[in-house]
Each structure stands twice: as structure tokens, then as C-alpha cells.
Amino acid sequence: MRASAFLLSAATFAIAVPAAAQDVPTTPEQAQMPAQGTANAAVGAQTSDATDADTTRAAEQAPLNAGDIVVTATRRAERLSDVPIAVSAISQESLQNSGATDIRALGQLAPSLLVSSTGSEANASARIRGIGTVGDNPGLESSVAVFIDGVYRSRTGSGLNDLGEVDRIEVLRGPQGTLFGRNASAGLINIITKAPSYTFGGYGEATYGNYNNVRLAGALTGPIIPDMLAFRIDGVFNKRDGFLYDVVNNTDYNDRDRYFVRGQLLFEPSSDIAVRLIGDFTRRNEKCCGAVYVDLREKIDPTPGVPGDFAINPAGNRIVQVMQQLGAIFPSAGDPYNRRIANSPGRAYANVTKDYGGSMQIDWNLGGASLTSITAYREYKSGNAADIDYGSLDIGYRDDDGNAFRQFHTFTQELRLQGSAFDGKLDWLVGGFYSNEDLVVRDNLQFGSQYGLFAACRIVATVNPAAVLRSTTPGSGCLSPVGQAALTQQLGAAAPLIIGNLRRLSGLNNLGDSRADYYQDSENYAAFTHNIFRLTDTISITAGLRYTREEKAFRAFFNNNNTICPQLQAGTAQGGLGGLLANPALASLAGGIITLGCTGNSSSALNALNLNDSFKEDQLTGTGVLSWKPNNNWLVYASYSRGYKAGGYNLDRSDLGTALFPRSNGDVRNLRFDPELVNAYEAGFKFTSADFTLNVAAFRSDFDNFQLNTFNGTNFVVENIGSCSTSLNGGDRDASATTGACTSDVKFGVRSQGVEVEAGLYPARNFSVNMGYTFADTRLRRNLVGSAAGAPLDPALFLLPGNQLSNAPRNVVTLSASWTPELGSSGLSALFYADGRMSSDYNTGSDLFFEKEQDGFFVANARIGLRGPNRVWAVEAWVMNLFDQDYQQVAFNAPFQGAGSQGQVQRFGGVGNQIFTSYLGEPRTYGLTLRTRF
Fold first, then answer.
1. Nearest 5°: phi and psi at 475?
2. Mean of the per-residue pLDDT values for the chain?
3. How far apart are CA 721 and CA 786, in angstroms?
4. Which of 778, 771, 789 is nearest to 835 (CA)?
5. Is the peptide bond before 289 cis (omega within 30 degrees of 0)?
6. 590 near 550, Cβ under 8 Å?
7. Of the candidates 147, 192, 426, 908, which lies 20 to 30 Å from 320 by C-alpha distance?
8. What is the spatial distance between Cα 809 and Cα 787, in angstroms, rounded to a whole number?
9. Is the pTM higher than 0.85?
């Protein structure tokens, strides 16, 4: 989509349907009151993390408009217009109007944020300004951290749980580390839930919608001991049919079946001490996530030797034909948005997820300072049983036998001491943070009951696509008598060895990991400080510093019964193909057979390994901000920040090394990746008047060792993306894994730069109009390498140099409008609400293959309702994805199903028969919600 057309469309919609990027929560008057009627502002710190002095100072200034709210993004209660950082704040009412029940839908209201999920909802990924971490590999921490009530959540997937009723959500953009316990390189999502109240009350709501969507939610709060001990209980139940239908197993996928409960106690023995205890439990038992076929075409080179062109093979895709010959069906062929899939019989998804834990926050007013302590322990376990090939041919699976899951045990402790000095000219904060996390990934990935014959047929079809050469007879190696004769004639003396190993490969069925255990134990120690110096009444300098010590230990053990792989890798004398790898005429064919028999390093030889490794790293990061507030309406600021995200281990045996040869204990170093670092610069201004707000920020962030996780159809590969300071002469854009090493300095590999605009119009008390726009040029540099040491870039990533990063649209516009007119003098009021998010084109795949591109699209939500006096009751009709917009979250290479893409054919020639599948966005949903509050 051309930029001019995109912006014109956005402007047209902005006139027709006004909107809001951040319809917001608490006003200064509300912030002055204890949260939910609590006894003192120190407990407002439960909701606001602010001192009494902070809250009082913020409240002394009357709100300039409904959008001028109090936030605690700097751990101090400040009006949004006074905070010299880029932050969006979203209230419970805004979330409710938009239909959001978890962080995924925040993107409708925050243009710089994009949240998506892939193979399961444990694999969520959040991106800010185009920067994020693909969530499929739990060894990688997120570039965008998630905090709930001050507690760090290890991975973004925990934010896809129902949240219950919140006070607000703050989305902080740019590196974080001097204010929050855990550091983040791209941004942070801070979720603050409703605290207990000393006034008895509660709410309840019931929703019914299409796809048999049933959602029940409610809360109860009140005193146990007046003005000393209060409680609150929140609960949510949600069940809904799936958006995808499996025509083989006659069932639906991507359904909802979950419940959530959170209990709280608030204890205030005096006006200076507040203790908040929180315990929560979430259980999800859902079949997620199915994927549809989006591209079944085979691409060929019509003019060999002349790069740049390609054609669709009129004879069809040989891989599709092989699969159909073996009985596969493709119900979404030609129309992926019919949402019909076909999984292997009996290979059901089992994604039971349990997420639970508890925290204790103590706020103690010491007089001249306040002390905050947050202690938390959490456990998270997500099942991972699935049909991993997403098709009806049984190629690969993880069985539902209890040996496929990821599990986190996390303990965190945060301490903060803050206060003011020199008659309020200095606001100081010092803190410490400790976390201990044990991560276990247990895997039972096995080749399916039809894998062996499929793999052998794939080899035969690669040599010659003619169907007459293939046979589906067991033990034939997929060779018909005609095929065997043709191959014997072609290979000569090597034919018996090749044919014998094809037959061996065809017997590779229901073999692989019975149980593989990956352990990553992490300890993190940090000390940080964040200080605001008021040089004059209008000029302030903020200085923050953080020291982080990260220690990680890795170990892995395997119980794998794939005995066919070692036989294929063996030398010629032992009947294997290893000896042919040195034969130029036969190396490609022999290597293909070995690779398919040992894909992902699946081999019984792994059982003898004892993989162990560990590392320690230290980083000093920080921030500096200069701000000027000439009057109550204006704020101008400029900042620099340095951010950090720890290194770790790729918890996938496939990255140990090439599958052509047996692996050794020394290969464990190949699983390690380096820390991600960022230097970020930002300048902006904020204007606030009685009926208008305008926030503008210009930013630039340079990422060193950017952690990129890519699925290439066979393996998950983690690279640290950097750029060589001298030319690689195209070595990063060729098909070789050995060219493109950098012998000079390695610089940053990714730059995100652009402009953010957030505007709000509040012409009347019951009417608000806001719009957000983000232009983010999040681009990879040229002359890319795959590590800080300058290792060559993985050849599958040849499209990356100089291009926009995946899942990073250059233009995003968010719009919303809310009108709640009173209906006469009856006390009744109405609700009219609409929001929308318009996104320009972007690529959804880390390798930027053309088949994974997503055209620009627009998603709108709407809600109308009738509310009783004081909102004691309400009836609301709603629709999400109003125009039933078709779009995909992430497209990917269908596992094992072909090789080669359009881009590879255009650049290097040959044949591209890789099949592509995709996780789709949600279709239109609608329903009716009844609410009551007491």
C-alpha cells in the first residue's frame, strides 16, 4: 500500500469516526484518594507505587482535561502531561469498551504496540516500535517486559491470561531498567489491578456472543476489620467455540476454556504501613493454535542464470502431490479464510496451562522516605502436545503423555527506597532486585507414522517429480519399479547404497524423543537508582543508573530412539551415506537423505551426551533526561537511555550443529546467544489544555546483538544480528553458510527510528475523541552478521540486509471515540463507542520471505449501551472486528513440507516448493453484555 494512500485513508477515517489511542484512567482528584477507598495514599502505592508527597503534589494541580491523568510510570504519582517519557495509559473503562480482556487487544489503543501469538498462547510476542522477541523459544526473554502489580512475569504469554478488573495499564516505550525490578530493552507493559476497598461493593457481568461465547466475571470487596483489613476477590470464566474447524477430526480449534481467580488482602495497622497480599490462579484448557495453508504453489526459475524473476510451475507443487499421494487433504487451499484445517487423526492439541503465584507488597512511610518491598513467587506450566505439521499427513507430533511442556518457577524480590531532599529540589530513588528462575522444557517430538515414506518420496520427487517413479508401498523407499530402474541407471555403482538408505529412511516412523529435558537456571542481581533534580521551577534533569549481574546455567538430557539417523550418518563400509559427503557428484543427494533422517539432530546418539554450560555477564545501563516545563500546559524533553536484555540458550537441539554429522558435548556452545544492547535517543513535547492534548515524540534506537529467533521449516535458529563496519561484498545475501564473516568491528544491526503522535480532544464532559499515529522505520542494516564475533549470517536470512524488520509496520493509526450522553433527567445514560487500528503492510516472518507478507488492513470495534443511574446496571451490544477483516498474525514454513521460497528462486534460481501456513487473526465476533455494580 502506498504511503500517500494509506495516510489519506487514515485522515478520512479520522474525520468520519474520531478516536482515541489512550482513553485514560485516574484523575488527580482520584489519585489523591486511596485506591478503591483505602485508608491512606501509601496503599495508593499498591496501585500507584507513589509516596504521599508525590500524590499530594500531583493532586495539587487540577486536571486540565479528562485525559490529563495521574500515572506512576516513574514510580512517582505524576500527571501524564508532566512525565518526560513516552507512555500510554489505558483505563479499565477503555479496555472494557474496546472488548479487551488481556494484553493482546491493547494494540487497538496503543499504536506503537503489537501483540501476537503463534504455536500456542504460551508463545506470545509483544513488540514496541517494531522491536520484540519471537515467543516460540522460551530460552529468550522478551524485549518487552510485562509486570502485573509490580511483579515481573517471565514471558509475555502470561499477559494473555484474563486480567480481571484493572485500575489501568501503562505502556512504556523505550529501554527500561532504572525504575522497575527487571530490565527490558524495548519497553514495558505495567498492569495495575484494582486494590481492596474498605467500602463493601462489587460488580458482576455476563456476556453471550457468537461462537457460543460465554463469559462471566465479577468481584467482591469490603472490610474485614474497618480501616485496617480489607479483602477483594476477582473471578472470570470464559468458554467459546473455536474459530477453526478440523474436517478430519470433526472438532474446532482456537477455542476458549479458561477460568481465573485472584484474591487480595489489604492490611494497614497504621497510617504509615500498608501490606497488600495477592494470590491468583489461572487455568486454560484450550486447543491452540491451528494453522491454515496459505501458499501451496511451486516456484521455478524460467530463465536460469538470469536472477530476479520466477514463475509458478504449471505442473503443480511436487510436495503437495507427494502428500496427496499419501492421502493428505488441503481444505483451505485457495481460501485460507474459510478457516478449515485438517489435522492428523488422533493427534490432538493439549495445551493445558496453569499460571499461579502470590506476592506481598509492603509500603512503609519512614517519614523522610518511603520503603517498598515486593516479594513474589510464581509457577507457570504450559502443555505443548500438538500435531506439529498442521496437516492431515502424520509427519510429526508431540504426544499427550505428559512429556511435552514448558515450566517456570520464579522467585523475585524488589526493594525501593525513595524520598525527597533539598526542599523538594531532589526526588531520589534507590533500589535492588533479585530473581531466581528455573526453566524446564520437556519435549517428546517424534516423527509421525507417515514421516518415513513422506521423506523418501520428497527425495525422489526432488530428483524427478514424475509420479510414475514413486510408490507408496511400505519398504519400497518410495521407488516404483520404474523409479528404481531410473535411479539405478542414473547413479550407477552407487545406486544400491542410495536405494538401500532410501528404504531405511522410509522406515523412520514414530521415532524421536521419548523425553528430552532442557534446563536453564537463571539468577539476576541488580541495583538501580533514578533521581530527578529540579534545577529551577521549570527545568529538571533526570539521571538513572543500573548495574545488572546475570548468571545462567544450562543442561540437557535426551532419551531418543531414532536409531535410523546414526545408520544413515555411518560410513560406506557400515552401509551408511557419510562417506558420500566427500563425493561432489553424490554429496547433495546423500546429504539430503541424511538431513531428513536426522532432522533437528534427532538421533539416538544424543543419549550418550551430557550437555552442560554456564555463563555470567555484567552490564551497566542507565538514562538521562533533560525536561523543561515553561508553564502548566507545555512540557519539552530530550533523553538518552541504554538498555540491556540478557543472553541465554536456545532450548532446541536443532541448533547444536548440522544434522549431517553426530554431535558432541562441545556443541553445547552453539546453543548460547549473547545479550542484546540498545542505545536509545528520544525528544518530544506534550501540550495539555482544557479540552485538548497533544504528545509528540521522535525516537531512534540502535540495537547491538539483536536476538532474532527464526523457524526455517525444520529448526529454530537464534542469531545475534549485528552489522560489519566494512563491506561483506554480498556475503550476507548469498546462499553460502561460510561466506560473509566479518573480520573488522561489529556494530549495531537494527535501528528503530520514527515519530509518535497522540492527540486527544475533550469538548464536553461526556465526549472524547483521540487519535494515535506511529511511524516506525525499524530496519536492519546492511552487511549483517550472525554474532558479536562476526560469524556469517544464516543463509536462510539472506533477505534481511537493508529491509524492514518482521512484524514492524511502518505506519499505524489508532482511533477511538466515546460518547456517554445523559438521557434526560432519568439518571439513565447511553454509550456510543468505536475504535479502530489501521496498519500498513509488513512481513510476518523473521526471514522476510515474500510468502509471509501481510497487506495493510484495518480492524474496528464498536459498542452501544444503556446504563442505569450511577451505572448500577448496564446493557451493552458489541462487535469486534466490525468489518470482518481478514488478516494473519504470523505466517511460517510448514514443518518439513518442502524447501525454497520465491525469494530464493529469484536470487539463486532452482526450485522453491516450500509450503506455507499461517496463524490467522480473529474473525468478527459480536454479542451482548449485562453488567451490574453495587
1. 85, 0
2. 90
3. 5
4. 771
5. yes
6. no
7. 908
8. 26
9. yes
